[in-house]
Amino acid sequence: MSAPSLQVIKVDPPVPLAKNIDDTAKKLKKTKSKNNKKTSEIKIKPKTPEVESASGRSIDSMYRNAYRTQLDLIRLADNKANIMITINGLILSVIVAGWAMVKNHTGAIFFIPISIFILSSLFSMFFSVLAARPKKNSSSAQFDDFAQKKANLMFFYDQVSLSADEYVQAVDQACKSNEYIYHHMSRHIYSLGLVITSKFKLLNVAYSLFIYGLCVSVLSFLLIEFNWIL
């Protein structure tokens, strides 16, 4: 019997550990470099038009709310003035008509409280009419005053001082610059504030005269009536 043949198995020599570490480090470096290239390729997006227009919308909303508030206050002042004019007119009509009928049947001493109430109502109605009366202001604004921001393009007294062609030209110039438009809008809001302040000052005087006159006339009437009873 022949002896069995032996197969020789070749075994690769072991790879040193230091070489494996070097290969792993090289792979990591390559991966990092690829990631850095991808990151550099990503461009930072500029601000979108929506973000830029948001500030413009907020400014427009501010001016819109300011105009609405000013106009509402002017309307409120006019309504209060009309109420006071109506009330005082009715009171004066009733008192004068009634006094003409009963003056011969009452003592002359009651003339004092009635006179106080008539005078207070009369002056109260006078200041109410001043508050409701439109003011007439004269303007001598020229075309160059609008370009120099010395006149208000949105104020009608300054508008009528120009011709139609000059006004259209001034508006065309204003539309070329947002700063120019905002300037005139701010001046217009300020002028409306002055009108509101003037109206409410006059209304404050009118309402104060009505209240104090009513209280004094009633008090004097009670004092006279009390002394008459005694």
What does this structure look like?
With 230 residues, the protein is mostly helical. The chain has helices at residues 17-41, 49-102, 111-132, 143-147, 156-159, 164-174, 178-229. It has one domain (60-229). It is built from seven helices and no strands.
Report how far apart the termini are: 166 Å
Q: How many alpha or pi helices? A: 7
Total strands: the figure is 0
Spatial extent as radius of gyration: 44 Å
Q: Which regions are unreliable across 5 or more consecutive residues at pLDDT < 50?
A: 40-45, 48-54
In one word, what is the shape? elongated
Largest sheet: none
Count of the separate structural domains = 1
Helical residue percent band: over 70%
Structural class: mainly alpha
Percent in strands: under 5%
Q: Give the integer mean of the pLDDT values.
A: 75
SSE order: HHHHHHH
What descriptors fit this protein?
single chain, 230 residues, mainly alpha, 75% helix
Topology readout:
Layout: H1 17-41, H2 49-102, H3 111-132, H4 143-147, H5 156-159, H6 164-174, H7 178-229
